[in-house]
């Protein structure tokens, strides 16, 4: 397949490694121009642009929890590509695995900032940009988690942040639709995906919990995000797309 996203411009946060890079690869294949961001993995950002070509891609270093950095990313996107069609709020952190009574407030706040507050800031910035540059049309995709559907016992901050992202998606989708604004908002809920976040010592144990018998690939999330970014999904709004190999079945 090709050209499903032809002519579209997308911002993908955390877009230079793991799931984010998988999404970017699918988007470029389908004809989109992509702006990828990361806070720490600057080398990965430059490598991704070298791979895709600077005619269709751009890297901007970004702290997703900073409103000023969101302005910087939006400005760079419009300066290079002229508009914004799609935002993929993908950047996230797992935090420390701990019982809630042992969780430090600063650690809790850092997870909430990156996984939830950043989604709010991204939605706000993207909606304003789509209003100004794209006739108030577009698609926002919040990459949540299966932990946004069911709690992980040793990840209270992560579960709360991803559950918050899920309901932020619902609320924003309804708010825009009820005002007649043609910007759709949906969430994607990955299960266990084969990225560097999974410790080698836990891989086999994790795989045993997955009904299909293997880890997902970043591309598996990318393909769902292609659909949600494309005009094919024009009636999908405020919905949840679970991609977990059957764990939640």
From TrEMBL:
Alphabetical list of InterPro entries matching this protein: NAD(P)-bd_dom_sf (IPR036291), Sc_DH/Rdtase_CS (IPR020904), SDR_fam (IPR002347)
Molecular function per GO: oxidoreductase activity, acting on the CH-OH group of donors, NAD or NADP as acceptor
Swiss-Prot/TrEMBL keywords: Oxidoreductase
Record PANTHER family: 3-OXOACYL-[ACYL-CARRIER-PROTEIN] REDUCTASE, SHORT-CHAIN DEHYDROGENASES/REDUCTASES FAMILY MEMBER
Family according to the record: Belongs to the short-chain dehydrogenases/reductases (SDR) family.
Protein name (Swiss-Prot/TrEMBL): 3-beta hydroxysteroid dehydrogenase
SUPFAM superfamilies: NAD(P)-binding Rossmann-fold domains
Species for this entry: Levilactobacillus koreensis
Gene3D superfamilies from the UniProt entry: NAD(P)-binding Rossmann-like Domain
Oxidoreductase found in the keyword field: yes
Superkingdom, taxonomy of origin: Bacteria
UniProt GO BP: bile acid metabolic process
């Amino acid at each position: 397949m090709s050209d499903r996203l032809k002519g579209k411009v997308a911002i993908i946060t955390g877009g230079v490694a793991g799931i984010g890079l998988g999404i970017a690869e699918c988007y470029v294949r389908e004809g989109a121009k992509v702006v990828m961001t990361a806070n720490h993995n600057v080398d990965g950002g430059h490598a991704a642009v070298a791979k895709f070509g600077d005619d269709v891609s751009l890297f901007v270093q970004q702290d997703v929890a900073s409103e000023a950095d969101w302005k910087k990313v939006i400005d760079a996107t419009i300066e290079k590509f002229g508009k914004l069609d799609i935002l993929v709020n993908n950047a996230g952190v797992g935090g420390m695995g701990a019982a809630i009574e042992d969780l430090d407030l600063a650690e809790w706040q850092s997870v909430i900032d990156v996984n939830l507050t950043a989604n709010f800031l991204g939605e706000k910035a993207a909606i304003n940009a789509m209003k100004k540059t794209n006739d108030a049309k577009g698609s926002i995709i919040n990459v949540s988690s299966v932990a946004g559907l069911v709690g992980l016992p040793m990840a209270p901050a992560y579960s709360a942040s991803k559950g918050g992202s899920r309901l932020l998606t619902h609320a924003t989708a309804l708010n825009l639709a009820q005002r007649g604004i043609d910007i759709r908002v949906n969430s994607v809920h990955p299960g266990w995906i084969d990225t560097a976040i999974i410790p080698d010592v836990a891989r086999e144990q994790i795989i045993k919990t997955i009904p299909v018998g293997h880890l997902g690939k970043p591309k598996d999330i990318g393909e769902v995000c292609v659909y949600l970014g494309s005009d094919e999904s024009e009636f999908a709004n405020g919905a949840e797309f679970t991609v977990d190999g059957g764990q939640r079945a």
